[in-house]
Specification:
single chain, 159 residues, mainly alpha, Serine Threonine Protein Phosphatase 5, Tetratricopeptide repeat, 5 helices, 79% helix, elongated
Length: 159
């Protein structure tokens, strides 16, 4: 129950930030359009350049929301199959994960992803192993790979 409430709060916060970003982008787009409508060459170029920002940000926000929604779907599928990664790594009194234990736990996840490169589950587990080891960039790359494979699985007809 507490996890569901925390997830709801996180989603509400993300929606709020997205709405605020949308308002900001709308203001930028209105200003960019006003610059283009002046007809002045420098203002037109500046206005056109400012239009790139809202388009780029909308694409990036859509990409992140798409990833977040699918990661939650993957987590739900794994939880239903009782395969959700469990964080049982030892921690310091301050809450930091023991790096040696994280590296040791990382090896099986990496081996599984290498053995099953087309299985989104192996990449999902690898992402959390990377995260525990402190490599957030590779964790995110692994989650994106899991997302791509999971989407591909959903697009294929059932056997």
């Amino acid at each position: 129950m507490a996890a569901r409430r925390a997830r709801g709060g996180a989603v509400l916060g993300a929606v709020l930030v997205t709405v605020l970003l949308g308002i900001y982008l709308w203001v930028v787009a209105v200003r960019a359009t006003a610059l283009v409508r002046t007809g002045e060459p420098v203002a037109v170029v500046l206005g056109a350049a400012l239009w790139v920002l809202p388009v780029l940000v909308v694409w990036l926000v859509w990409r992140e929301w798409s990833l977040a929604v699918d990661v939650q779907r993957m987590a739900d599928e794994l939880a239903e199959a009782d395969e959700l990664p469990v964080d049982e790594l030892p921690r310091s009194p301050g809450g930091r994960i023991d790096r040696a234990a994280a590296r040791e736990a990382f090896e099986p996840a990496r081996d599984r992803a290498e053995a099953e490169p087309d299985d989104w589950r192996s990449w999902y587990h690898l992402a959390f192993a990377y995260d525990a080891a402190g490599d957030r960039r590779r964790a995110r790359e692994s989650l994106r790979t899991a997302h791509r494979l999971h989407r591909g699985k959903a697009a294929r007809p059932a056997d």
